[in-house]
Amino acid sequence: MGKKKNKNKISGAVKTAAKTEKKLASKLKKELADLGEEDISKVIAEIEREEAKRAAASEKTLTAPPSPRAYASLTPHPTNNELIMFGGEYHNGQQTEVYNDLLIFNPVNNSCRQVKAPGAPPPRSAHQAVATPANKGELWVFGGEFTSPTETQFYHYKDLWCFLLSEKKWEKVVSPNGPSPRSGHRMVLLGRKLCIFGGYSDDGRECRYFDDIYTFCLDTRQWAKLAPNGRGPCPRSACVMLPVGNDGLIVYGGFSRVREGRTERTYTHTDMFKLSCKGSSWSWRSLSGGTSARAGQAAAVNIHTNRGYVFGGVCDVEETEEDIRGDMSDELQVIDLETCRWHPVILKTEQAIPVPVQEKMEESSEEAVTVVTDEVFTMKLGGATNQVESTVTVAAPKPKSGPSPRMSAMMVVQRSTLFVYGGVLEKDEKQFYLGDMYSLDLHKLNEWKTIIEQPKLPDWLGSDSEDESGSESETEDSEDSEEE
To answer: pTM here?
Structure first.
């Protein structure tokens, strides 16, 4: 009879890993004590307990505009002419503040009210949210990240929440087999299913980017991981994802880090893919005709015209072998979701106007030309040229208006009006979080209207260089991120 195996025996490798984790945890605990910070998981658990104690919902109208932020979610209200903003973050160079406030903006009278409801999610940024008119209006929120004030700890969520707009009540939806913790992902509504793609997770020791795709059925409340046919997008975050009807979507661009030997470099993607469903079979298809390579672009879709809009974003430009500059954009582009073709959006106030310009031109006279030759040299006599002035018309472009260049802004289309709020402006090694807001009538395309003016940029309290600060900033999610 053979010797029985000890099922409780732990291998040497597992013991070593456990000891390493224990040492790391002890080291982190000491570092946090020196900084005056608690373990981030304990902080989040305590916030969730406190939010659960709230007995009833309260609502108040804000007397000042919302605070500057990026990596929040801005969602069109499914039944009212309103916009719903949730979460986001603000960083001043020294500390980061992450929000879990729920704000409802009325574009008719430019008022904003704050709703505090029982059982709200913990603060987060670089998450995703969509709304559906079911049950008198629901707001669904998935994932995101929480950053400690000193940016020494990062926590990525994998939780799913539902806010009942009519009842002003939050519900944490628990269902197995969902996506792993992440931020900088993208989520759209296809029929009665939430569809989630990509994102990234960073625990301080390893940074992972994802290319998996999940659906969550709002009727059965069950997760399903898709295994589409064909070659799809590589792992990335901060991409653009737009729904195409109830059975398809488009993924464009995004951001990831690529390891080359012992070094890592950032990579901004320019490819575009379409995911389609026929019956129960999903398949990827590569598309051509992508626009410029940028990450952290704001995206919105107008379901009535079947068009998607993309604004801003950032692309890393290598000025030298060691220096990388973030090239930020203020371009507004539109994509036809049927033909998958991009076009720049040119407003009527920005269209070129004809301007008369005086131009000098040389004109040859019609005098006879005499040729003299002695079989060695040849000369032409006569035919002098004269200078004449003529008036030509050239197109002079008008200066652009509206939002300044930025990344990870919040953008949404509500009743054929496009709204842009906040985002991040990079200047040298500084990142300024914005709080301005603009609207654009997509029918008229006359001009941007300023809803909230950007105040003077605040003082940057951090170092002017990454080397001095000892930390490296994520291009897309710290993100859009974000991680938007």
So the answer is: 0.81
